[in-house]
Amino acid sequence: MSTPHETPDTRGHGNGHRIGSLLAIVLTVIPFWLVMNGSPLSPGWTVATIFAFAIVQIIVHVVFFLHLDTRSEGGWTLLAFLFTAVIVILTIGGSVWVMYHLNANMMPMPDMGNGH
Amino acid sequence: MTDHALEPQAEPTWYLTEEEGHHDHGAAGPTILGFWIYLMSDALIFASLFAMFGVVASAYAGGPVPREIFDLKLVALNTGLLLASSITFGEAMPHMEAGRVGPVRFWLALTGLLGAGFVGIELYEFAHLIAENAGPDRSAFLSAFFTLVGTHGAHVTIGLVWIVTMLIQLGQHGLNAATRRRLICLSMFWHFLDIIWIGVFTFVYLYGVIR
């Protein structure tokens, strides 16, 4: 029933969970505060900041809540996670990048203005 | 290793028991890795929905823009509820390891209540938007918004069904190998949904309002 084996999700509770919770709360409150109370940063830097906070918070959740490390399940969970992260970045980043430029380059078409 | 497939069995087993799964895996057998792979594939579904939203995020079709329709106070409340539910689920797990079924059920029930609050507020937000003529049929932006946020909400709803199921199973069977394994999978599922929500509140709500 209960075995001495450690599973990826039963290790590091207690302190790790508390630290992760605190970090997660801070990393959530700051971007909301920046956007809701008027950011002291320029709009571009505000956007960069909230996305940076999101990426850091995702890593915090994966490490402290999902307990991903190099040893769990013989490293296969980490490998699957890294593979997924690459595909996710390619899918979202690639789509937005390509379609943004497609849009931008389509704008000055000569008959765009009088088509309505 | 004998060939199990050819041996006549009195009762078929549909899953690997603890003992059979022990070759080179942890206590819950290969289920954890399998469930992890499922979560990764679910992440790919959300990636395609995020990509779709990113592409049409400013295709308003003359309709409302995020600044006009998103209530960030409501989103902040919802984000707090989901994050709190992730933290309370984390509180349940040490009790599971120690074999204390009472505290596990308490933290699990609290997690479920917070999750139900999240889904309730999200449904209120959706109803409010549709009543304001900002439903999914208004523009490509709103179609993508309802698809992405709705898919996440559907996941959370299924998580709630799972939580209720586990509360009943814990009441009937207590903590055994099967309920522990299911609790570990459920905790991974629940934390995963909170991670997806980080992407939603950043990319959809915060970025939408300041764009």
From TrEMBL, chain A:
It is a multi-pass membrane protein. Keywords: Cell membrane, Electron transport, Membrane, Oxidoreductase, Transmembrane, Transmembrane helix, Transport. One of its GO terms (cellular component) is cytochrome o ubiquinol oxidase complex. The keyword Transmembrane helix applies. Its main location: membrane. It is found in: Cell membrane. GO terms for biological process: aerobic electron transport chain; electron transport coupled proton transport. GO terms for molecular function: cytochrome bo3 ubiquinol oxidase activity; proton transmembrane transporter activity. The chain crosses the membrane at residues 21-39, 45-66, 78-100. It comes from the Bacteria. Heterooctamer of two A chains, two B chains, two C chains and two D chains. Cytochrome bo(3) ubiquinol terminal oxidase is the component of the aerobic respiratory chain of E.coli that predominates when cells are grown at high aeration. Has proton pump activity across the membrane in addition to electron transfer, pumping 2 protons/electron. Belongs to the cytochrome c oxidase bacterial subunit 4 family. This is Cytochrome bo(3) ubiquinol oxidase subunit 4. It comes from Sphingomonas kyeonggiensis.
TrEMBL record, chain B:
GO terms for molecular function: cytochrome bo3 ubiquinol oxidase activity; cytochrome-c oxidase activity. Cytochrome bo(3) ubiquinol terminal oxidase is the component of the aerobic respiratory chain of E.coli that predominates when cells are grown at high aeration. Has proton pump activity across the membrane in addition to electron transfer, pumping 2 protons/electron. Keywords: Cell membrane, Electron transport, Membrane, Oxidoreductase, Transmembrane, Transmembrane helix, Transport. Heterooctamer of two A chains, two B chains, two C chains and two D chains. The chain crosses the membrane at residues 35-62, 74-94, 106-127, 139-168, 188-210. It comes from Sphingomonas kyeonggiensis. The keyword Protein biosynthesis does not apply. Residues 1-209 form the Heme-copper oxidase subunit III family profile domain. It is a multi-pass membrane protein. This is Cytochrome bo(3) ubiquinol oxidase subunit 3. Pfam families: COX3 (PF00510). InterPro entries: Cyt_c/ubiquinol_Oxase_su3 (IPR024791), Cyt_c_oxidase-like_su3 (IPR000298), Cyt_c_oxidase_su3-like_sf (IPR035973), Cyt_c_oxidase_su3_a-hlx (IPR013833), Cyt_c_ubiqinol_oxidase_su3 (IPR014206), Ubiquinol_oxase_su3_dom (IPR033946). One of its GO terms (cellular component) is plasma membrane. Gene3D superfamilies: Cytochrome c oxidase, subunit III, four-helix bundle (1.20.120.80). It is found in: Cell membrane. The keyword Glycoprotein does not apply. Belongs to the cytochrome c oxidase subunit 3 family. GO terms for biological process: aerobic electron transport chain.
